[in-house]
Amino acid sequence: MSDKAILEYQGKKYEFPVTEGTEGELGINIKTLRSEAGMITLDRGYKNTGSCESAITFLNGEEGILRYRGYAIEDLAEKADFLEVAYLLIFGELPNKQQLDKFYGDIKEESEVDEEMKKILDGFPKAAHPMGVLASLTSALTAFNPGSVDVESEEDMYKAIVKILGKFPVLVAWTQRKKNSLPLNYGDDSLGYVENLHKMMFEKPGKKYNVDKSVIEALDKLLILHADHEQNCSASTVRMVGSSHAGLFASISAGISALWGPLHGGANQAVIEMLEGIKADGGDTHKFMQKAKDKEDPFRLMGFGHRVYKNFDPRAKIIKKSADEVLEGLGVEDPVLDIAKGLEKEALEDDYFVKRKLYPNVDFYSGIIYRALGIPVEMFTVMFALGRLPGWIAQWREMRLKKEPIGRPRQIYVGANLREFKEVSER
Ligand code: ACO
Q1: What is the DSSP string of 256-296?
Q2: Nearest-CA residue for atom 38 of ligand 1
Q3: CA–centroid distance, residue 357 to ligand 1 (Å)
């Protein structure tokens, strides 16, 4: 096989090296395209553009494969916990006991948030969407933790990483507590990372905090499944913002804003809103299946289909099992869940969906579990953000360590040609 790709344009040939990844993926390196051929590539939405070489996450949408640092998502979801996965994603290897204990110890040391931050939270209206609040608070962390990270220093890098991992769950919990008019609190260092988060979110004043172990396990699994997904919209945003050498907190804050949209992390909220809508309409799933198939109708079955996974979403398989266990374990009975099951069954047997390879994606089930766990709908995407935090950090760290250049795409200009300026009186 040739390791060069040849482009022919107007009788001239240009050669470009081909890069092969460890899983056999091929990329044409067009670095010299503009200087040699006077052209650029045009690729709306970067659907076919590799922005970097990365050793963090591998996914194959055709075969439904997802791996973090070479480990199958199925194994990690079954055998590891969220903090181990965070360490793996960020530093490249699974931690031994000593490394893990130190990592969590250092995170706990950083789990205080400056009291002054409460004043910022206070300024938000209660109706504010938690994702907007979280993005702002994360950005504000920069002001309370000034000083740029010396990326040449592993120690500096490490400190910034444990800082954000320590403070982020507090901010997540505070956004929920503000929404629910509960007093702001801090965590309990004797608990694990995810249980501590849960306690901070749900503990009520004067009431003994109690949680079923299966709830924490389900939450932990959900966070693992969301921890990274290679160069998606929010990870690319974190890399892009960080490539200007803006700090880690500012880059993560930008990633949160990117995740907020309904085409990205906001889909889990859209699923529950759709199910609620079907319920309010009388619960006829067949009617909505017909609507989803009708090309004249803009309605789509939220939680079905995926841009990359065209066979099945491996995360959905894992989470479906977990959803069944949690719902049964908690004895949850909810008409919205019955509607979800009905839709799923019909879609999996329907020719339209089967032909187009439209399967339930991870967000179809994650919303259902979050709801069963008592997490408010508007907090769903915030939970996604917490899960994705290690991935964003890993992407940012890799980008800085590799000394990637500032991200700056080009364009094909299609606007007006040079025009004569006219004074306002002549326009
Ligand atoms: N309901 C009904 N029809 C659908 C759906 C759906 N959810 N998704 C795709 N289709 C149909 C399209 O109408 C199209 O039909 P056609 O070939 O007859 O024109 C065909 O399937 C292909 O659809 P595309 O939009 O081209 O597929 P694409 O890969 O661009 O979109 C996407 C993927 C955006 C996820 C889409 O399936 C969708 O909108 N799903 C619902 C939203 C959702 O659940 N998003 C969460 C994704 S998971 C995540 O981000 C973590």
Answers
A1: HHHHHSTTTTTHHHHHHHHHHHHHHTT--HHHHHHHHH-TT
A2: 305
A3: 10
Alpha carbons 177 and 172: distance in angstroms, whole number: 9
How far apart are alpha carbons 137 and 140 in whole angstroms?
A: 5
Q: What pLDDT is attached to residue 1?
A: 56
Please report where in the chains the tokens 């700056």 appear, as a residue: 408
Label residue 407 exposed, middle or buried (CB < 10 Å: 0-12, 13-18, 19+): middle
Asked if residue 304 has its Cβ within 6 Å of ligand 1, the reply is yes
* pLDDT digit string, tens, across residues 63-73: 999 999 999 99
User: Are the C-beta atoms of residues 157 and 149 closer than 8 Å to each other?
Assistant: yes
Rounded-to-integer distance, Cα 218 and Cα 257, Å:
26
Cα angle, residue 166 at apex, residues 171 and 194 outer, rounded to 5°: 80
CA dihedral in degrees (220, 222, 225, 231; nearest 10)? -110
Helix (H, G, I), strand (E, B) or coil at 63: coil
Q: Quick one: which of 409, 315, 402 has its CA closest to 55?
A: 402
* Residue 17 DSSP SS3: strand
| C-beta of 380 in contact with ligand 1 (< 6 A) | no
2 has pLDDT over 80: no
Tell me which residue has its CA closest to atom 17 in ligand 1: 356
Look at ligand 1, atom 24, and give the residue with the nearest C-alpha.
307
**Residues belonging to the active site:** 306, 363
252-274 pLDDT, tens digit each:
999 999 999 888 888 888 899 99
Backbone dihedral angles phi then psi of residue 423, each to the nearest 5 degrees: -60, 155
Q: Give which of 341, 315, 329, 334 is closest to 377, Cα–Cα.
A: 334
Q: Rounded to 5 degrees, what angle do the CA atoms 139, 377, 388 make?
A: 45
- For ligand 1, mutation pick of 309, 358, 365, 366 (most atoms within 8 Å of CB): 358
